[in-house]
Design goal:
The structure is a single chain. This protein is α+β, with helices and mostly antiparallel strands and 218 residues long. The protein has 2 domains: 2-120, Fervidobacterium nodosum Rt17-B1 like (Heat Shock Protein 90); 130-211, no CATH class. Helices cover 29% and strands 34% of the residues. It has 5 helices and 9 strands, in the order E-E-E-H-E-E-E-H-H-H-H-E-E-E. The protein has helices at residues 49-73, 122-128, 133-151, 157-160, 163-171, and strands at residues 2-3, 14-26, 32-43, 79-89, 92-101, 106-114, 183-185, 191-198, 205-211. The strands form 2 sheets. Strands 1, 2, 3, 4, 5 and 6 form a 6-stranded mixed β-sheet that branches. A 3-stranded antiparallel β-sheet has the order 7-8-9.
Amino acid sequence: MTESEASPSAQALSVITASLQEGYYLDSTDNEYEYSYEIPAIVGQGPDLERLNRQLHETLMPRIEESDELMKSGSSLFLLEVGYQSFTNDGILSLLVTVKNDWDLTEYYAVNVNADGTEATRAQLLSHAGLTEEEFVSRAAEAVGLYFDQMYADVPAEAMSGFGYDLRERSTAAENFGPELPLFLDGEGRLCFAARVYSIAGAESYLHLVTLDGTPVD
């Protein structure tokens, strides 16, 4: 868990660990796992906080309970880590939850809250970046295209022809950047998002945290 320095207008809000479970686990075939599950909660006053905290809990807790059952039965563990970071910018608190699974599969959930405890809308986040909805979708597609090119820069062009170009087009398709896209403001106030990038190997796709400049989020 990490938390950036809060701006004066957002000091009424804070993020705490509402639930923590961590340790080591040895399954029935002697595979050892280290796990850490932190569920955050936003503390403060406001009309939307209870709902947002409940949604986070209802999203994450069943995953952790499933892992508990797997450990009781000696099965392999899939969920390895649930953690979070929080940032504040111009009165908006952004909470980014990272869920790390086995096989390098990572999921992201983002919650954005105004200093008065109301949920910050997608339009607010885009406005913070000086973008309209149409401009954001265009910029996000360009950013993911750059990210894709950088990721596979060492792959020979002939290996990327056809199949590789199709993966790039799927990664930059406009439908990837709709309302369900996790958006947040990072510690530098940059608008960032969890981009689905289609892969030439391994899983069909992976989520990556990307800035609008096409660079990875540190």
